Amino acid sequence: MTRLLVAAFTAAILFAISAAEPSFAQDAAAAVQETTVDRPDPKGIGLRPAATPVAEEIHVFYDAILVPMKIGISVFVLGLLVWVCIRYSKRANPNPKKFSHNTLVEVLWTAIPVFILLIIAVPSFELLSVEDIMPDGQVHEYDATPGQTQYAFPNDFAKSRMVTKARHIEVAAVADNGDRRLLQFDEDYDVANLGDETVVVQLAEALPASERLVITAGRSRVGAKPVLGLFGADRSKIVPAPTLTIKATGFQWGWRYSYPEFGDFEFDALIAAEADVGRELYRLAATNDIVVPEGETVRIITTATDVIHSWTIPAFGVKIDAIPGRLNETWFATDQVNTFYGQCSEICGKDHAFMPISLRVVPRDEFEAWVDEQRELNGMEPVFAGQELAAADSGEERQAALQ
Ligand SMILES: [Cu+2]
C-alpha cells in the first residue's frame, strides 16, 4: 500500500511538471504575438501571459514549484483518507488499537512540511527582492571602430551593487536595422578588472563596422531562471535603471496619475461607461490610460488620499498597496506594445469594483507626442518637440532640461 501511495505521489508530481511546461511555451508565444489588449479570458483560470521579466519569474515559480506541490499534497492526503476509510473501517478492523502517540509519524508530519516551506521560501525571497529592489542597470553603447576589441566602462555603482561577476554584464552587438545578437561570455568575449573602478570587456574578434557594441551592466538580473538553480533555461536579463516615474494616487473611487519628470502634469482615471467601451472591457477600461514607452523601466510610486487601495497589473506581476500618508514604490518594464488592465485590489468601499487601471505601452515617439499633448492640456509648453530634452538619457537629465 505504501509503495502504491509513493508511486501515485511521484506520478502526480511528474504529471504536474509536464503539464506546467506548455505554459512556459505559451508565455514565449504571447510575447511574440502582439495584440491590442490584454484582458482576462472569460472563464479562464490560468495566470495572464507574462509581459514583464518579474511576471516570467513568478510564472516559473508557480508552474514548476507551487502547482506540482499543491497537486502532490492533495493527491497524497486524498490517498490517505481513502486508505483509512477502507483499511480501518468497522468491517475491516473490528478491534481498533488504543495507542495515542507515534513519535516517528509526529516527527515526519512536522519535518516534511518544514522542508516544503523551505523549498517555497528560497524562490519567494528571490522574487520579493527583484520586485522590491529598483533596477540600476547601466547601458553603454559604443560605435564599432575597425580592429577595436577592448571596451571599458565605469563600475560606478553603490559599493554593494558593483559589477563583480561575469554574470553582471551582458554584451550584445546591435546592427543598424536594430537586430540584436547576444555575445557569449568565454566564447565571444572575456572580462577583466571585475570589482575595480573600470571594467574591461575584451572581444575575441572585432565587430564589423555595421554593428554597435552595447554593454549592459548591473546586478538587477530578472526573468525566468532555472528552478532551484537546477532545472530549466536561464532567460533572465539585466534590467536598466528606470527612465520614467509615475505617481499613482488612489481615491474613492478612481486613480490620479502624475508624471513628475515632465512638469508634474496629472489626470484622473475613472471607470469608463459600459456604453462607451462595451461589455468586455467594462470595469477594466478607464476614462484615461496611463501611457508608458515600450522597453523602458518605469518606476511607479503609489499613495492614497482616503483609505488603502492597491495598484496592480496582473500581466506585469505587479501589485502594490496605495496607503494614505505613505509612498510605496515598485517597477515594471515590458517590450509588449499593448494595453494592459488591472483593478483596485484592496477592498476600499462600496465602489471598490469600479476603479479600473488601464495602461497603454507605446513606442517611444508616440509616448513623447502624448507627453507633449498632456502638457499642452495642462497649460505647459511641449518638451519633446525639438528641445534638448529629447536627447536626455535619464530622469535627472530631463529634470535639468526642464528647468
Ligand atoms: Cu480602491
From TrEMBL:
Q: Where are the transmembrane segments?
A: 65-86, 107-125
User: What membrane topology term does the record carry?
Assistant: Multi-pass membrane protein
Essential cofactor(s): Cu cation
Look up the record and give one Gene Ontology term from the biological process aspect. ATP synthesis coupled electron transport
Enumerate the spans annotated as Cytochrome oxidase subunit II copper A binding domain: 241-373
UniProt GO cellular component terms: plasma membrane
The entry's function note states: Subunits I and II form the functional core of the enzyme complex. Electrons originating in cytochrome c are transferred via heme a and Cu(A) to the binuclear center formed by heme a3 and Cu(B).
Which family does the entry's similarity section mention? Belongs to the cytochrome c oxidase subunit 2 family.
Give the protein's recorded name.
Answer: Cytochrome c oxidase subunit 2
Q: From what organism does this protein derive?
A: Parvularcula mediterranea
